[in-house]
Structure formats: C-alpha cells, structure tokens
Amino acid sequence: MSSLAIPPSYRSNLKIYTLFLFVFWTSLIAVLISLNITRLKTVTQDIAIAQARAHFNKDQAFRYWAASHGGVYVPIDDSTPPSPYLSHVKDRDIVTPSGKKLTLMNPAYMVRQLNEHFSSLYGVAGHITSLKLLRPENKADEWERAALKAFEQGETERTEFTQINGKPYLRLIQPMITREGCLKCHAHQDYRINDIRGGVSISLPMSGLVQKEKQTILIESFSFIALWILGSTLIFLGGRRLSRLAELRSQAQAEIEKNESRFRTMIDYSYDWETWIRPDGSYEYVSPSCERITGYPASQFIDDSTFLSQIIDPDHQEEYKLHRLRHINSREGCAEIYFQIVCRDGTRRWIWHQCHPVFNSQGKWIGRRTTNRDITELKEMQETLKINEERLTLALHGAGLGLWDWNITTGEMIINERWAAMLGYELNEIPLHHHGWQELVHPDEKDRVMAELQEHLDGRTEIYESEHRLKNKSGDWVWVLSKGRVIQRDEKGKPLRAAGTHLDITDRKFHEQAELETARTREQIKHLESMKTMAGAIAHRFNNAMMVVEGNLDLMLLSLPKDSPEREMATHALQSAQGASQVGSMMLTYVGQRHKHIQLVNFADIVKESVTGLRALFSPLIHLHFDLPSAPVFCNVDRQQIKEVVNDIITNAVESLDGKEGSIEITFGSDFYETKSLPIPFHEEKSKRHLYIYCQVKDSGHGIKQEDIPRIFEPFFTTKFVGRGLGLALAAGIMQINHGALTIESSSESGTTVRILLPEISSPQQKPLRIAPAKTMRDANFSGNILLVDDEELVLNVGKNILKSLGFTVHTATNGIKALEQVRISGNDLCAIVMDVSMPHMDGIEALGEIRKINTEIPILLSSGYSLEDLSLNDETLKKTNGFLEKPFQVTTLKRSLRELLGKKREG
C-alpha cells in the first residue's frame, strides 16, 4: 500500500503547473485582445471603403444620368456662369421664348458644383480630375496622377488612408469611363467610347469611424480583461484546492498504511464488494464497499444470508437463484453472472458477480469467495455507445457516407453496406482486404493515392484525404472523396489501425468538369473574337498599304511607253500586288465580313458542280458514293461562296486518303441543332434551336487527332505540311456570312465526317432574287475641284495623283475637321468629295453628317480599308452618302465610281 504514497515533489510540481497555466492563460488573452483590435481596425476600414464607394456610385449614377440627357440647361447667374470649357459645344447658351438665358451644364460641371456648394452637408469631398484637362482647377495631385496612370494599365480602383489637415481621411478614386453621351463635350480631346477619361476621387472623413473604433476596442478589451481576471482567479483557486486534496490524500494514505497488517486476508477498502461465504451458505465476511454500492450496511448481509436475493431486480431473481444452486456448494471452477439490484435509495445498479472456491493451507474447501463489482457506468456507456452507433449509422446513411475500418497490420478491412453500394456491390461481394481495394483504384491515380496514404501513415499529414476513381461492378468509374486518419499506433509510432469514410462525388466532378468546359469555351470564344478583331485591323492596314502600292503602279503604267521593259516590270509588280491584296479579302472572309450576293439556290446543285469540277482529284482507288436527294433542297446563300466551302471540304477528304484506297460518301439531310452544340466559331450570344439542311461528306482517311479538333478553324492551323494558308478558317468565315455552320467528327479508326449546315428557308416556292440591270449613265465630266480626305499621307498622295491624272483640280484634307473647313471655304465649287471613314479628331461618318448640314447636293464617296459590312453603317448614314469604295482600288475602279457618281448628278 505504501507504493501509493504521494511523492514529496508533488506539491512543488503542482505550483509550477499552476504558474504555467496562469502564464498560458495571460498570453492567450493578450493574443485575443491583439487579434480583436486588428479585426476592429479592418472592419472600420471596410466600412469606410463601402461608404466611399456608395458616394462614388451616387455621383457616378448622377453623372451617367446627366450624360444620357446630354447635360441640363440652367439659368445663368453668378454661381452658375457659362462654362468656358464648353465653348466648343454647339448651343452651349440658349434663350427661351420668354427671353430667359440658359446655359448648358455638363455632368462634370454639375458634380463639381454639388461638391463645392453642398459637400459640407454630408462631409464628403469629391474631385474630378484627368491627365487631359479641360479645366485647370481639376489638376490631379501626385496620388491622383499615380492612380490615373494605373487605370490606363487596367487597374479599377485605388484607396489610401491618410491625414488631411491633421484629421484622418479615406481617399478613394475610380476611373471615369467614356460613354456615348460624354463625347458631346469631350470628343475634341480624342476620347472614344469606353476610353478612360479620368477619375473621380472621394475624400471621406473618418473621425467618427475612428472614434467609434476606439470606443469599441476599449469596451471589448475591458471584457477580455474581466475574462482574464475570472480565469486567473479560477486557476489559483483550483491550484489551492488540488494542493489541499493532495494533503488530505497523504493523511488518508498514512492511516491506511497503519492498518495494512489487519487486512491482509481481506481488503476492507476494496472498491469492489467482496464476500466470503461458508460451506453452509452463511457469510464469513462482507466488505464495507457493499454499503457504498447498495446503501445497506455489511451487517445486514451477514445477519441474513438471503438478503442479496431480496434486493435483486425481479426480472433477474430466477437467473440468480439458478446460479446459486449450481455453484454455492461447488468446489470447482469460477462462475460469473450479471444482474441488477434495487438499492436502498430506490435506484438500480448493474452488478458483475463472480465466485470461485476457497481452500485453506491444508487444501480443505472452506467456502467460496465472491466479488460484486458495480458496472452501472459501464452499462450506461455501452448503452450510450449503442445509441451513438445507431445515430452514426443513420447519419452516415443520410449523408451517403461509406464507412471503412482498416487493420493495417493484417490488411483486413471492415466496410458498411453504403461503401459497397457506391460501387454497385452487395456487402459480401467486396474483397475485404487492403489489396482488394487497391485493385479498384483507377490505374492513372493509383500512384498518387498510395503516396497520399503513405504520407499520412508516416505522420506527415494530420488526416488522409484523397479524391480518386474506383471501378464499380459494371466496369465504370465512380469518383469518391476518401477521408480518414490513423486511430491507433504502437509505442514506436507505427500505425496499427485507421478508419474513415467514402463519399460519392461523381455528380460534383461532373458539374466541375462541365464548369471547366464552359470556362474553356468562353476562353476560346474570347480568343476567337480577339483573332477576328486583329484580322479585321490587319486587313484595314494592309488594304491601305496596298492602296499606295497599286495606285502608284497604276499611275506608273499610265506614263510608261507600251513596249518599254519598265512597263512590263510595272505590270508584273501590279499583278503581284493585286494578288497580295487578296490576303486582305481572305482576312475579311475569315472574320465574316465579305460581300455576299444572296440568291435562292438548290444546295444539291452546288455540291454536284463541285464534285464534277474536282473529278480530276479522284484516283481510281477512291470509291465515291454520291447520294443526291430526291427533291431540291433550297437555301438563300451566296452561291459562289458556298461552292468554295464545298470544294475545300471535298478536297480535304480526298487528301486525307493520301492516294490510298478508301471511300468518300456524300449525302444530304436535315436536322435540328442547338447553337451551343456547334463549334465555337458559330456560337451566338443567345443559344437558339434551328432547323438546318446539310450536306455530309464522310471519308475513310487517317482522321484528325482529338486535341487538334478545337483548333481546326484557327487561321494558318493545319494538320498537313506548313503553308496551306487560312484553311478551314476561310470556310468558317463564309458559313458565318451565310448564317450556316460546319460540324466535324473524326477519329483515326473511322475517318472524318463533315457536315455543311445551312438554314432551311421557310418557303421553297419563292423565286430567286434578281438584280436589276444597271441604268446607262451619261458620261461624267472629269474636271473641276474635288476634295480628297484621308489621314494617311501616302494614301493621300497617291489618291491626289490619280485624281489629277483623271483631270480634276485636287484639294486635300487630313481629317474631318479640315474637310469641313474646306467645304465652308469652297462652297459650291466642289464637284465631289472622296473621304476616308477612319480618321482622327473627326472621322468620315461624323464629317459626312456635318457637311450635309452645309451642302445637301454635293456627291460624297466614302472609302475605307474595312468592308461596308464591317463598318455597319446605319440607314441614316447611307442616305447621306452617294457611294462606297473599298481599298485598295485602282485607277479604273475609282474612275468608274466617279463616273457613276457624277453621272447621277448630271441626270439629277
């Protein structure tokens, strides 16, 4: 018993532990106070930024409203004089019929006046600024200037917490985006829609927020300090209590040691209720613990040997009587039984009863010794565990979780029915071993999964977590999220047992993959639009450059003798230049901006013409199956353009066979297609369902790799040798022009199948469109003053020389503003105007409108390196012009356009 004595160092260690707990508690409260102060400061800043954004959005909404109405006219007074910075705006100042003078306030003027006169009402100051100023007072300070430069690089907002006049402020600035209404006042600054015109900064006073922040920090800090005082008090009181208990325990231990010799045969103070029963059934000894367990003193059991039977629960009495009859006089073996007793206070307790024979030193049987142990708490724990297991089973079932328990030493696994059902198995069909589970893991993921599991077994990760695929009973793959952890290790840290769950995440993975595909589709559309924008811009620049080349060569040919070698060289150069100009046309075709001549055609006739024209490509080894439809399939398209597409598709089919034996099948049909199901180049903003007629070209060639199919419509991409040009990109552009589409399916085993889709017309009986014969124009008089307007000097020079060669007196202008000045000066002396569309300061479209306000009769010929479809001119603009000439053009083309232009004028 002396081994249970409390060591002398116990009280010393207890003091150390108490002090350590106090230091830890103090440190924890200090950290929490620090974190809370940081959080409150962050909240204050977030609130300030939100308020500043709200003020900015209010001003921005007000500005956009005013801009959408072109500004507001207000009475002129001392506080609202006419703005000198709007002097360039027509009708800046007006007079009402009643004689009241009004001046125009643009959005900037309005917001500035609001900020200057009324900012004191809400304490927030606003400032409009820009790097290109109309009003010097709007000059940006250093911080605003840095922000404005950052906006040009794509940044959308800047904030700064600073001091203004010794008080805390938040400064916030966001860019002003040019809207259409802004151009009324700022177009002369070369701004265009969506340009960053400047910014609006907001200065928000933070004194109130900072004061509130300090108050909150103070209050919550006092709360933490109060919590610290309470915890410290409990720590020291608990330490004193433990010290006192230790002292009492030492005293009791000393008393037990004094009486140790008196209880060597039977331990009176045993926790269990011990008895010694004589051979006649009476009690020799009953330990005092019986009173602790039953509430009855030991004497009551000694005086009445049947008393135990009387307090046993009626449901268990019969079982106890049978046990007593069998073992009370037995000299052999050990027996045990479980029963419930009714204690003195009426409570019920579970007892584990064990009895075995007792012999003296001579070997004589002297009765039986029994041990009665109170296992009520154990029984309650077992019952609780059973309930918890039932709840766990219900929770796992409700959450769809499969349970696994792995004996790492033996490799054996225990799983529940849900684990097996995820893979379509019954519980008895799954191999209950770790190796059997490994065989179910997808081969592509097995190494990763085993590495993740080993990391956890080695103790390098807190939990094991892995997403992988398992093979189900039908051979398909099921995505699971497996989570678990080691729950038992030996003394050396070696893992012995692990447990965890499986969750079927197949649907989630499907949705994630769908979202990924959607994101990829959006990125491809964005990439395609970028390429189209670039191609259109290149075509415009290229056409302007070729205009200079072809124009100068054309003029050179007019001046060179017919038989001179220089004329022959110039002719060859012009032919090559004209061939090079086709690149611009090809680019415009790629971006879907090529001229088209729509007419009603039989789609099958176009395909038949292509097959007939390409017969020479078909070797004897190619088996052609051409199945014409029984009835015409009509569509409204540009016949020649669609024929180009059919030729390309059939040529690709022939080339895919590489001169080997194979087949090409050409069939027709119709089907419904969702726009979103078509390849990326044919997507629209809104997905629709259309009925298409189609021509299907199927070959048995080598096919296209799956990773190449998404790029098949990119310009200059080819699966053949380098240098094949724009390839299917041109075909895609033509199909866009004609509101059709192309679909491609391909594999190395079955070859390639291409469908050429065209919208089915609503009325096949309609007649083809006819082009009215051109009227005979009277000869034009190529003389007089003509105005040529273009912003590129080289194009201007060659155009001037061409017009001079035709007999005109040429005046020039480099932008719309200068052209307008020439018209005002020359009046009716100009016989015509040839004007570029894309120019700085004032483009050709805007200049056209202004010229028509001055002169409605003068013929105006617009010109551009962009196509007419690309420019998307509205009907009002088209009514104001007399013709359109696409660059590059030759002398003969310009002459023909001017003859038609001036001939109409003479007829008029």
Task: Name a few traits of the molecule.
5-stranded antiparallel beta sheet, 45% helix, 23% strand, 908 residues, 29 strands, alpha+beta
Commentary on this structure:
By secondary structure, the chain is α+β, with helices and mostly antiparallel strands. Strand 11 (348-359) and strand 12 (365-374) form a beta hairpin. Helix 16 (603-613) crosses helix 17 (639-656) and helix 17 (639-656) packs antiparallel against helix 18 (728-737). It is elongated and about 150 Å long.
Summarize the structure.
Helices cover 45% and strands 23% of the residues.
Residues in helices, as a percent range: 40-55%
Shape: elongated
Spans of at least 5 consecutive residues whose pLDDT stays below 50 are 721-725, 766-778
Gap between N and C termini: 132 Å
The whole-number mean of residue pLDDT values reads 80
Major beta sheet summary: 5 strands, antiparallel
Number of helices: 24
What's the helix and strand layout?
Blueprint: H1 9-68, E1 72-75, E2 93-95, E3 101-105, H2 107-122, E4 125-129, H3 142-152, E5 158-164, E6 167-177, H4 183-186, E7 196-205, H5 207-258, E8 273-277, E9 283-286, H6 289-294, H7 298-303, H8 307-311, H9 314-327, E10 335-342, E11 348-359, E12 365-374, H10 376-399, E13 401-407, E14 413-415, H11 417-422, H12 434-440, H13 443-457, E15 464-471, E16 477-489, E17 495-504, H14 506-559, H15 565-590, E18 598-602, H16 603-613, E19 622-626, E20 634-638, H17 639-656, E21 662-674, E22 689-699, H18 728-737, E23 741-747, E24 751-759, E25 785-789, H19 793-806, E26 809-813, H20 816-826, E27 830-836, H21 844-854, E28 860-864, H22 868-871, H23 875-880, E29 883-886, H24 891-907
Parallel strand pairs: 19-21, 25-26, 25-27, 27-28, 28-29
Antiparallel strand pairs: 1-3, 2-3, 4-7, 5-6, 6-7, 8-9, 8-12, 10-11, 11-12, 13-14, 13-17, 15-16, 16-17, 18-20, 21-22, 22-24, 23-24
